[in-house]
Structure formats: C-alpha cells, structure tokens
Amino acid sequence: MIQLTNVTKLYGTVIGVNDMTLDLAAGAYGLLGPNGSGKTTLLSLLTGQLIPTIGSVRVLGESPRNNAELFRRLGYCPGSEGLYANVSALEWVRYLCQLQGFTSKDARRAAEAALATVGMTAAMNRPIASYSRGMRQRVKLAQAIAHDPDLLILDEPFNGLDPIGRHEMGELLKTWIAEGKSLLLASHLLYEVESITDRFLLINGGRLLASGTAAEVQALLVDAPNEITLRTTQPHRLAGLLVEREITDSLRISDHSVVLSTRHPGQLYEQLPSWLAESQIAITEMHSADESLQALFNSLLKIHRGEVV
Amino acid sequence: MIFRSVATVFWFESRRALTASRLVWWGVLTLFPSLIVGMIRMAIADDPNQPGPEVWTVFLFALVPMLVSMLGTFLWATPVVSAELEGKSWVYLAVRPYGTIAVLLGKYLATIAWVLSSAIASLILAALIVPLDNVGGIFSTILPLTILSCPAYAAIYLLLGTLFPKRSMVIAVAYTLIFELIVSMIPALINTFTVQFRLRTLLFQWADIPIRGDTNVLLAFVGNPPAWEHVVVLVAFTLILLLVAIGVVREREFSASEEGNG
Question: Where is the ABC transporter domain (chain A) (predicted)?
Fold first, then answer.
C-alpha cells in the first residue's frame, strides 16, 4: 500500500522526515507521534504535496506527485480546517466530488451520502461558517470518503470532537476498516488510535521509531528497563531485599510502595513470590507502568532521545 | 476530464463570488469611469474648446482597459493561490485529479468573466455620457482593447500570484507601477514587453490618432508594427504566461508543514 525508500525531506536545513524506509501492506495503521514529529510532513509526502529531498515514495504502487489516477483512489482529510465559510457543506463536498470526475448529479448523490454517513444531513444546507468545530471535522471527513477511495489518510481527525463525536467517528472508521479498506490515521494521542487499530507507526523527530502491532513494538523493548510498582507495608525491607538480589537497575521508596526499574522483569515475576515468602513480606498491589501502549510509546521516545541506554 | 474540472471551478467560484463585498466592488469598478467622465463634462461645460473624439477615446482607454481591467484583474487574479493557501483550502484541491490546474484556470476564467463584464458595462455607461454625436466609433475602438486587456492582465497577475504567493499583492502592485506604468513609457525595446505598450499602440492605430512620423522617439513610444502583430503578441503573451503559471503550480511545493501540528 505504501512504500517509502530512504525518504528524507528537508525544509532548508530543518529535517521534516529523516531517512525513512517503510513498506506497509494494505490495512489500517495508526501514525503516532508528538506534535512536530513529522506526521504532517509524512502525510504531505504521501499525498504528493511535497517532493522528497532524497528517496522515493509510492502509494498504491504509484508516485503520488501530480498523479491524477492515484488521487481518484485516495481520500485525504488534512489536519487544518480550510473550509469555505460562505458555502454549505453539501455545495463544498459536491464541488470536490465533481473535481474527482463525478458528474453534477452523481457528485450531489455522493456528497449527500457521505454527509449522511458522518451525521451531517440535517445541517448540510447551512453555510459552513455556522458550524461548530466538531461539525466541520465531520464535513472534512465527508469530503475524504465521498468518492469512495481505496485508501483514506486522516490527519488528527478527532480534533474538536466532543466525546460522543469521537465515539461516532471511531465507529465510522472501524466500519471503514471492516469493509476491507485501508486507513492511515495520524494522531498525537495514542488512546484515539488504539481504539481503532492495533497496528502502529511511531515517529519522532522525523524518524520512524517503530512499526508493527502493539506486541511487536513491545518486543522491541525487551532490553529496555521496565518500571514496576510494589505496594507494601514494609517498603524499606522490600527495597533491601531487592537490592540484595541484584535484580533492579534502580529503585525508590515512596509512601507505602517501592518503585523499581529492571531489565529482567520476567526473572523478577518468576522469583519474587518465593523471595517474599522467605522474607515474610506481604505486598498488596503490583503493577507495571509499561503494560500500557502509552508507556510503550514513552519508552520508545526515551530510547530515541538517548535517555535510556 | 481537465476541462470539466476547469468548468466546475469556474462555476463554483463565480457563484461563491456572489457576496455583498464582491458585488460592491463590481459596482464601484463599473461606475467609476462614468463618474470620471461625468466630472470631466461638468468641468469643461463652459469651455468653448470642447475636446474632440481623440481626447475622449484616450480618456476612455485610460479609464476602462487600463484602470478597470488592470485594477479588477489585480484584485481577482493576484490572490488566486495565496487565498487558498492562507485559507488552508489548497490541500483539499491539490489532492484531486488535475485539481491545482483546474483551480488556476477555473479561477482565471472566473476573473475574466467578472472583470470583463464590469469593464464592458462601464464602457457602455461611460460612452453614453460622452458629449459626442458618434460615440459608436469610440466604443468599437475601446471594446476590443478591453477584451484583449482583461485576459492579458489577469494572466500576468495570476502568474505573479503563483510565483510569489506570500507577497502576491505587493509584488503585483510593484510590477504594475514599475513595468506597466513606467517601463511601458520608456521609448526603448524594453517597453515592447509590456501589455500597456501593445494596447496603447493598438489604440493609436485603431482610433486613427495621428502620430508624428518624423521622430523615432514617438514611434518607440507607441510602436510601429502593424496592429495584427500586436494582437498576436498579446494573445501569445497571455497563453505563455498561463502555461508558465500551470508549470509553476504543478512543480512547486505549496504545502506548508505548519498546516498540521504534526
């Protein structure tokens, strides 16, 4: 679906995308990265608005730059608003459908259907200027799906949506994926993406940090320290025990808990019960902060920044 | 496909321009020449030496093909790209088949339709109040000049707006002042590269305004070649500018990284 070969994009001396190589099969992917990580630059490269300084970009097997055939199969919802204030959603989506090559009648039909899909039928004849931010976000999605593309690329589609709107948007995208269509969803919020797909691309500083399913990305962190919290009434004794067994890289005591960092979590989980039994130390709670995808993402970022060796 | 897209943009933009402010501008441009002609008439009402047809022809040339066409196309065509970029709507058009070309040419045609309609209406109104018995001659001279000037100026401003989208209006004003108003008056080879020179020469030839042939300076000021050559140059000039603008819009990266926050 998407192939990037050693793609670098420079804005003068600033790097937008840094030597990125990627080969994605058809499917749904979340593109995750903090603000300024290069997501929008990457999407601009994929939609042919930017030309890579080095390397090549292929989308659905074709170069995206000025490619009319590809644009027929591509739906793009950018992060910026950019809607005409004085036209209605129906006029605007219909106009963009006509630019896709639809006849006037077919464009109207497609626009009405797309606006119905995003729940905008009731307001579609009102000027866009009168819409809330959430409504505009829906209209943006409508223009991206109206021509029934094979690949949908969305840049921060949840921005401005209220919780109900987010849920509805999520359901809509899940339906899209269930229909066997491809999706690339860029966001800086992990929870938005993980509710829709379990395959991720994590980027920061224009570099691809990791890609794959959550489990595959987790596997990359085998050698990275895991942070584990143990709650006990005897934190000092427990800390002493752990130091004695040389299982931790670091630890700290706070209130009634011991927070430790270890590169050997498996060994710890295996041996901890017997150590506790021998020492007569009771723990009331144990959890690893690194079990969530957010923690995984944070760990990758730390590795990338050189904060973790 | 591309022609249908151009037509789509043309109709959409023409409809979208039906706003109060645009209509006011259209009205102001249309009425301005009549207002000036009316004021000139009042000023010279008691003058025994009333201006002849040549003088009124030059007045109307200055007011319609120069002022209305130039100002109208400047206001419409210059921000064609920058308005979409600043409004962040460019990206929606750029990911459509031939979208950028369709936007450029569709808006160009919309510019011509709006400005030419204003220019022709202003010419008719102004000609009606010119105090001459036979204004038909003046009208038939100025009308083709207006029809030539609108597409040519629109193409210039379109190209400038495409080349310099961030400072399009400033660049266009500078171009107009330096080239169309100053350089076009310089009696040397360089003035032949301006639209103003071609139009002015056609005016003198079609209006049969006598030119002193004993001075090369005057000939360089209004031009010597036959009228058809000026028409061909103007048409070719317009087409070349449009082709360059299309080339620029296809090859240039207009996407701004700051568009999104990622």
Answer: 2-230
A10 touches chain B (CB under 8 A): no
Give a yes or no: residue B154 inside a domain.
yes
Using a pLDDT cut of 70, give the percent of chain A over it: 92
Residue A37's alpha-carbon distances to A53, A153, A241, B257, in angstroms, are 18, 17, 42, 11
Domain that holds residue B49: 2-252
* Helix ranges (DSSP H) in chain B: 2-16, 20-43, 53-61, 69-77, 80-86, 90-94, 99-128, 136-163, 168-175, 195-206, 216-222, 227-251
Q: For chain B, how many structural domains are there in total?
A: 1
A184 at interface of B, judged by CB pairs closer than 8 A? no
pLDDT tens per residue, range B110-148: 999 999 999 999 999 999 998 888 788 889 999 999 999
Q: Among A162, A160, A157, which residue's Cα sits nearest to residue A173? A: A157
What residue in B sits closest to A91 (Cα-Cα)? B12
Where would I find the H helices in A146-292?
163-178, 190-194, 214-219, 235-244, 265-279
> Does B259 fall in a domain?
no
CA–CA separation, A288 vs A260, rounded Å?
Answer: 10
Residue A181 tokens read as 């269509």
Residue B148 lies in a domain: yes
Counts for chain A of helices (H) and strands (E), in that order: 11, 13
For each of the domains in chain A, give its residue range(s) and CATH number, in order of start.
2-73+149-219 (3.40.50.300), 85-143 (no CATH), 226-305 (3.30.70)
Judged against a pLDDT cut of 50, whether residue B241 lies above it is answered with yes
B260: nearest CB among A66, A87, A156: A156
| ipTM attached to this prediction | 0.87
> How far B172 CA sits from the closest chain A CA (Å)?
25
- Longest CA–CA span in chain B (Å) reads 74
Give pLDDT, residue B28.
95
**Which three-class secondary structure state does DSSP give residue B130?**
coil
Place B226 in a pLDDT band, splitting at 50, 70 and 90: confident
| Per-residue pLDDT tens digits for A291-308 | 555 566 667 777 767 766
